[in-house]
Amino acid sequence: MKLLYCLSGHPTLPCNVLKFKSTTIMLDCGLDTTSVLNFLPLPLVHSPRLSKLPSWVSKDGSLNLEKELKECAGRVFVDSQPEFCLPERELLDLSTVDVILVSNYHCMMALPYITEHTGFTGTVYATEPTLTIGRLLMEELVNFMERVPKAQSATCWKNKEIQRMLPGPLKDAVDVWAWKRSYSMPEVNSALSKVQLVGYSQKVELFGAVQVSPLSSGYSLGSSNWIIQSHHEKVSYVSGSSLLTTHPQPMDQSSLKNSDVLILTGLTQMPTANPDGMLGEFCSNLAMTIRAGGNVLVPCYPSGVIYDLLECLYQFIESANLGTTPFYFISPVANSSLEFSQIFAEWLCHNKQSKVYLPEPPFPHAELIQTNKLKHYSSIHGDFSIEFRQPCVVFTGHPSLRFGDVVHFMELWGKSSLNTIIFTEPDFSYLDALAPYQPLAMKCVYCPIDTRLNFHQVSKLLKEVQPVHVVCPEQYTQPPLTQSHRSDLMLELQPPPMPYRRCSVLSLPFRRRYERVYILPELANSLVPSEIKPGVSLATVSAVLHSKDNKHTLQSVPKPPPAPLSKKRKRVLEEPPVLLAPKPLLSGAVPLEAFLATLQKHGITEVKVEETADGHILHLQAEDTLIQLEEDGTHIVCDNNEPLRTTLRDLGEQRESSS
Amino acid sequence: MDAECVSLLPGVCEVLAASGRSLPDDTSLEKLLDWFTGLTEAGGSLLDACPCLLDFISTVVHNTASDPGVLSFTLRLTGLTAATEDGFQRLQERSVLNQVFHRQRWQEAGLWEDPCFRIGWIQGLRSMLRHPKALGFFVQSDFIDPLLQLQTDASLFVASAANQMLAHILLFFQPASSPGCNGADEKEEDGDGRTRTTSAEYTSAVAAISEYLKASLVPQKYTKLRQSLQILKLLALLLARAGPPLWDKLLQTVADSLEELVTAGCGQLTLPLMDVILAACSRSGADERVLDQHVLDQRVPDQRVPDQRLSRLLSSMLNVDEPADLVHAAAAFLRRGHHSDIVHTARAVRILLLPLHIVTGQSLLGTNTTADERQSSMVEQLKCKSSCISVICVCLTNTPQITLTPSDSLPCPPQLIVIAVLSLLRICSGSSSSSSSSSSSSSSSPTGCSEVCRNVIGSGKVQKCALEALTALSSSPGAKDAISEVFTVLMQYLDNPDSDATVLHKSYQALVKWMSVSPDLSVVTDPLRRGLEEVVKKRVCDMRWEVRDSTVEFLGHLAGVPVTGTPALLGVRCTTPLLKEALQDTESYVRASAISALAKTLTHSWQQGAALSQEETEIVSRLLEILSQDTEGFPRRAVVRYFISWFSLRSSSSSSSSSSSSASLLTQCVRSVLSQGSADLDWEVKVHTLELAELLLDEAFSGHRGYGKDGAASDRTCTPPTHAEGAESQLAGVVELGVISALLSGLVDCDRPVGLRACRLLVTLRDAVCPPSPDATAAAVATVSCELPGWGWGQEVRKTLGMKGSDIAAEESIGGGGGVNEGGDGASVHVSVCEALTSLGLDERLKVLTRSSDHVHNSPLSLLQDILTASAAHTHPDTQPGQEVIVDCY
């Protein structure tokens, strides 16, 4: 049985478990961070505004969670360390997972929760950039959280009775008891120590049963799709992929061909926002703000789209006369991120790869740094405060605006309408992200840049690779809720895709029809094939089937232990062995007319022939015997008359082999 | 004809007749033929002028081994010489014509295979067929059949030439369409004295051709489609230009076949078929008006194709099954503008509106459309993406025309069509059609709509088409009612990050057009104004220079749109800083556009004579910087144009006192523009600079006698006594501004347009200020001198004046106050302007400059010489053959 357990309902942060040929494979373990939007921001420096927010009191005054819930501009926020929504852990025993395949660094953020707290003993497979940058992202997250520790942990609001009475999104939040605070650095290190590195197209054998292999997916540095195949079945797992020529190696599409099942996740979250248009929008809004004397804040992750943004700006700043405007990149891992991106040559697109052989770095941000146009700092403390010049452009995290240095800039710049915040990361609704900062004078521009496949591209891709079945999150099978008229923003396939949601268990719709079996040479030697039609030979074999590590081998039947030698036996043995001609092999159907003639020759004359759906029934009236002739079988039904049955069988065999 | 050419021609004929000798290049024969054609058209007899041609023709055609190119040339030349009756007669006397056009003979010689030869045969005959004798020869030689065969020749050029020829025969020899010309065998003189005839030959030609048309019009099988296509083209050509008898005859013959073809419903033939039917229809109506009742009465009723029959054909065409063909047929009908045919117009309109009705869900066809049997097949057609886009684009292109049709042919008010186009634009950009559009839309969304909508979402082609249609729809009746919605949609387009650069450009155009339709901008709400301001600010920072350019251009256009009552859409306070910023743009086109746009926004204040603001002064100094430093030509040209428009617009109110500071700034600028512009590397900048110089001359001398440009007017207004003083001081003024230096440097410029313009201006100036007879006034004017630098153009001018080192001292004294600036070779001198103007040989220079630079090269003499030289080179093996030719090519 091939089963797919769906542990996450988030289409771009998937976590699925595939049971296939006695292996249990977890495909990605994304962490749904949207839950943090329900929490108050963690300011780096004391924020009088945030600390003065009124506590939330229910309308009738009956409910007062003074310490836990604060109100801001009509919304209620939890005043506590932000918590994340983990993949489902009740659906199956996660300690049985043999391996975890990671497709990109965004889809591994839940890894420590799985590897450290479920009894997991297997291996994690990922590419080198995925591991390195994934570590940076985790490090940044931990750093953001630990640098502003909050002693208090709010739990009262999670009480079902209380939650029911809360307003807005808090009321509808699901599984709140399963929400967890961020992991710690030791947990990260331990989790990542279980990662085994793989390269594109490298084949990894899992218990001899299946082979897994990562393919370039074109989305981010080292991002991959996975092929999981046995000798006769192939499952493709497509996660965040991109056909745009940005910095990573282009997507390998051809290897996805001939899949029995293709699991499709990680399509663009912004199907209506074209990345090129958004990039243009980003640049013009940035230039417009700077020209008017304002500052630009870009909340972002420390890796990924930021490389493309910097590259785009590199070309743009000259033409827009922004040459003197400083660009700041602030992240605890800013330096590593900028440097690592330059050394992953083999994971870059061809264009950038070829630069590695020239004395120039693949990404132009190196030049921006050299010319002092781009400066990076680990936080707003220290050197940054000395160098800080306005107007400027600041890239910093976290895109949720709940923690990280970005919180400080929101407090600093939010009051002036000259400043602009430009959202480029598509993971969070920008209105929700801004909610605890209202009222806000700062201008907001939303240009989400999501380079992942859109519906148009994916339908072209599927037409190209032609999988037999497609499995995808249910969100992809209908148009987005807000744009119900856009029937172009959904997957339409024949046969229709199998949708899944959080906690679904799907039985994948393909049957195992073949199994590969090895045969030992000496046994193979003893076979006597006979050709039944040109190019096809058959041989009967009697052997012992030996199965180990999911490999099946036919071995010769061990000789029976020699019987105690009796005199009589010895004499028989001394006789020269009679070489019997090999029996003719049986194949094909019994020709009725000829068979009847043969029967008659042997004295069976009273035969009543009856036609059935599958063949014929011959009734030998004198012998009170039935012979059923069917396409793939012949049955002789006679009452306790073994000699007759044998005779009839031999007669039938004669006819069959001669046919 | 040039005597020299006549003397060379026999030699050339000899060369050509001796085939095999090389020609300078393969265009020589064409050039030669062009020359002969020119001579014939000028009215001379070719054989009289060049008697050697007759010998040449007979020599060449007797030799079937001649080069096919030369033979083809000879055929065409023969036709040309036989175009007059006299020439025809002389060729006949030498019995050359039969030889020349003897098709079988050429076929046997294997020359007919060459398409170049066949085309020579057709064109030769066509040139000849200009008089009845030629027609007689043509018909008697049985040339009609081969010509009909050539109509479907494998070579497209031959086939097309044959088609043209067939049309020529029928149309050229048809009897003039005046009363009483119906009878056969009548001759009459038309206005040109050319004899037209309705001879037996013509009748038989008409009969043969129309029989062929009738027989071959309907394709027997698919492979014959091309023939039908050719015939339809021919028919359309004929029916559009044929007079009544021929028209009747043709239609009568082919009507049945046309009907058969219409019913056959062959998609590829729809458009040509429609052309034929429409050509027929347009004539049928026209005839009734042209002809007297008397003539109509004379016609035998049953020999005419009745209008009902044509109408029926048209009806069938507007009822074919294939939706795409139907749309094309309806579009063709509407393009012809048969608005008097109300029934068919209404039908065509419905057909063209149907796709829009389906996609947008606007009830363009009224509520009772489900009964329309075409709807379902159209929906099917529209579900296919490629055909959907092409069909919708055809419909969109025709919407402006549709709104102009009489209201009784329209199924809905014209405003609704504008609303539908807007709704389509919304769908294209991915926003919902029903949620945002007004009134009736939501109720009648037909089924299948969403599947069709999907095909147009994000289609740049449809967007562009719809925006063009929207621009044109601004002049439709009742369009003004939709203006606020138009603005809203256009704003969405301007703001949309996915809008393509061309789409943005077209949106701007549409916005400007709609604004000029309704100068009352009170409909534009404040949020819309603010939105536009934001969008424009964003777009001038766009990454794509094309977008920045269109935006800057738009700002200029906006300034030119008259606005009444309400404040302008974007105030100067908003636009000027943006344009100033754009002067720094990295792309030269944007800088140039910004300069032009600035000039447009300042037009009004220049005309008012308003005092210059600090900002304008800054702009001016920035512009002068651009003129002297910009590496690209476009911005520099734009700067000169900016000062031209400032200068010309200012002059109308130069007396205003508030503008004195601005006038002095302008004078300063003009001086630097003249000096920098005339020294520019770009010839267009120099030409623009001369334009500015011309304006200055106009201003200084427009009242003077002899100032060539508005002589008649000035003669009346000026008074001779003030002439001399005025001229002297004005001349000194223009010298001081640097006009004369600019003109003189232009005169010796190596770019012909610059030299020409400067020369013309200098001639005008000379005629105005230097009277031919020396008198007192002349003496005064002669004292005005100008400086010639010791380098560059100054040296060049001095050379022309014949000044050597020793002359300089002499010139010095004439120059009066001037004198030599010491400094060796580079020393500049002063010369009297009048002296210079009279001794520069301006008239000869003008003559030389007026001729195009390749005039020597293109003369017939040069052509004949080339041919002779090439053949000489060929016959002398010592010289390397072909070398000349190679040089010639470059």
TrEMBL record, chain A:
GO cellular component, one term: integrator complex
InterPro entries: Beta_Casp, Integrator_9su, IntS9-like_C, Metallo-B-lactamas, RibonucZ/Hydroxyglut_hydro
Keywords: Cytoplasm, Nucleus
Record region (Disordered): 549-569
Compartments where found: Cytoplasm; Nucleus
Pfam families named in the record: Beta-Casp, IntS9_C, Lactamase_B_6
Residues in Beta-Casp domain copies: 306-434
Example GO BP: RNA polymerase II transcription initiation surveillance
Transmembrane segments: none
SUPFAM superfamilies for this protein: Metallo-hydrolase/oxidoreductase
Family: Belongs to the metallo-beta-lactamase superfamily. RNA-metabolizing metallo-beta-lactamase-like family. INTS9 subfamily.
PANTHER family: INTEGRATOR COMPLEX SUBUNIT 9
Identification of the protein by name: Integrator complex subunit 9
Encoding gene per record: ints9
